[in-house]
Amino acid sequence: RGIAVEALAKGDAIGIIYINIDRFQLLNNVHGHQFGNQLIKQISGRLRALEAPIFAAARIGGNEFTLLFENKSDNAVSEAKHAVEAVFAAPFKVGEIEAALSASIGIATADGPLDPSGKSNWPMALENESLNDVFRAADIAQYYAKTAGGGVTRIYSKEMEIAQRRQQEVQDCFRTIGEDDHFWLAYQAIVDLRSGRVVGAEA
Q1: Higher confidence at residue 24 or residue 185?
Q2: Best label site of 24, 46, 103, 168, fewest CB within 10 Å?
Q3: How far apart are CA 105 and CA 103, in angstroms?
């Protein structure tokens, strides 16, 4: 994060890549934690070896990484995207075990410089958002890559965030069903016209 702030303060345009390794927990459970640790080390090594436009890589969680890249050309996002995808194109080998990995990848961009309030321009979304929001945008894009089945890259758009908020609102509404009398279940009788008897009901 410190590197990102410094780059923006200098007026550099940067991009943020959020990576989540697909099905890592399954591999960890099947082959053991020692295998998982060695796998993480190999992934970290490949990511840190990436060259321009990527200039920084960090592990931020168990199977999650972030990368920073210089977004100074029209092709920068595409170049960074293909570079990261290439990391997972070749299998990883730990001892005698070979593992083909995939990753869910999200990308968002930010343009410097920062203004005195710590804000930055954000051309792919709303302007004048904080750096934290750019990281969050990359995470949202990664979420969409994960829900698409993994092994793909998604570039953040504002529509993603709007859809995610709507989904959360719907889930919140369902949690409160029955608590505020806004929803109720009604049944309509199904009547046999010949006998006049109720033979069932439908919601």
Answers
A1: 24
A2: 168
A3: 6
Which tokens go with 153? 């890259």
Return the top range by mean pLDDT from 68-77, 89-98, 113-122: 89-98
Rounded Cα distance, 44 and 83, in Å: 14
Per DSSP bridges, beta strands 153-155 and 103-110 are parallel
| Cα–Cα dist 131/83, whole Å | 24
- For the stretch 120-159, pLDDT in tens is 444 443 344 567 888 889 999 999 999 999 999 999 988 8
Report how far residue 17's alpha carbon sits from residue 47's, in angstroms, rounded to the nearest whole number: 11
Structure tokens at 111: 């343009």
Q: Prior bond to 116 cis, omega within 30?
A: no
What pTM value is reported for the model? 0.72
Query: What integer pLDDT is reported at residue 66 of this predicted model?
Result: 93
CA gap 156, 129 in Å, rounded: 14
144-161 in b/e form (b: 16+ CB < 10 A) is bbbeeeebebbbbbeebb
